[in-house]
Amino acid sequence: MTYDLLIGDKSYSSWSLRAWLLFERFDIPVNIHTTEFYQPRFAEDLKRWFPAATVPTVRAHSGAVWTDSLAIFEGIIEAHPELSLLPEDPKSRSAARSLMAEMHSGFMALRGDCPMNLRHTWQDFRPSEAVMRDIKRIVMLWDHARSLGGQGPWLFGEYGAVDAFYAPVAARIAGYGLPVDQAAAEYVSAHLHDPAFRRWRAMGEARNRTLSEYDKGLPKGLWPGPKSLSAQPVANGPSENDSCPYSGGSVTHFLELRGRVFGFCNATCRDKTCADPEAWPAFMKLYQS
């Protein structure tokens, strides 16, 4: 079964990130459709996903439509019992569901004051007392989850749906420099280093769209994730490869990395690779060959 997923801007749409990670991390077949905030076509795009009012939205092969992130997660969990989307242990399973529900309906100060922005950090941000109350509650919930789960960097040991749900929270903590304890900081770091998260962010960087609606009016700093290899677009080949590492198509666009030139079938494939080469296994296999 292949699903259709409508998402928004990759640098800013936290709920889209959650849904995309669910499909990406668990290798669930999906066709991705993209729209953009604050554009006239946003409302037009949504008409084809009735009764959706925003993103993300998922359509199943049966014609069923899930128009809410929590509904998407619960629908996919129900449709794919073979996947370890939630912990097996009943106590941990109920805790994971509760954490997702609380994220879905709560933490309004954090969500309002600290909208997700994966393009850079905000320096000199001063969180309000309400934001810090949200952070305190989140850290407590993460500690509770780890007390129930097994060993590993994720909340219940292995990566699960609940971790996809909290990935944008980790991005907010990192992007706004919000103070957390060591255990929470390690969990945030696990998200920033997660290859799937890095691919999502790289695609946003490739789009290179900055929304003034998310501007905080503060000095900007570099994104705090792992430092990427320094690749640059170049106008011409020849390249070491004759076919795109992603599509297999003929190469038309090129990048240079450490004195070597590689080709891609279009500008998007090139630019997402330039943004973070190590996030893309197909490219790294080519690079290391």
Write the H/E string, N to C: EHEHEEHHHEHHHHEEEEHH
Tell me, what is the CATH class of the largest domain? Answer: Mainly Alpha
Strand order of the largest sheet: 2-1-3-4
Question: How many structural domains in the coordinates?
Answer: 3
CATH topology (level 3) name of the largest domain: Glutathione S-transferase Yfyf (Class Pi), Chain A, domain 2
Q: How many strands? A: 9
- Distance between the ends: 34 Å
CATH architecture of the largest domain: Up-down Bundle
Q: Report the structural category.
A: alpha+beta
* Number of continuous helical runs: 11
What is the residue-averaged pLDDT?
97
What is the 3D shape?
A: globular
Helix content class:
40-55%
Strand content: 5-15%
Q: Summarize the biggest pleated sheet.
A: 4 strands, mixed
Poorly predicted segments? none
Radius of gyration: 20 Å
Organism: Thalassobacter stenotrophicus DSM 16310
Protein name: Glutathione S-transferase
What does this 3D model show about the protein?
The protein is an alpha+beta fold and 289 residues long. The protein contains eleven helices and nine strands. The protein has three domains: 3-79, Glutaredoxin; 90-198, Glutathione S-transferase Yfyf (Class Pi), Chain A, domain 2, CATH 1.20.1050.10; 231-288, no CATH class. The strands form three sheets. A four-stranded mixed sheet has the order 2-1-3-4. The protein has a three-stranded antiparallel sheet with strand order 7-8-9, covered by helices on one side. α1 links the parallel β1 (3-7) and β2. The radius of gyration is 20 Å and the shape is globular.
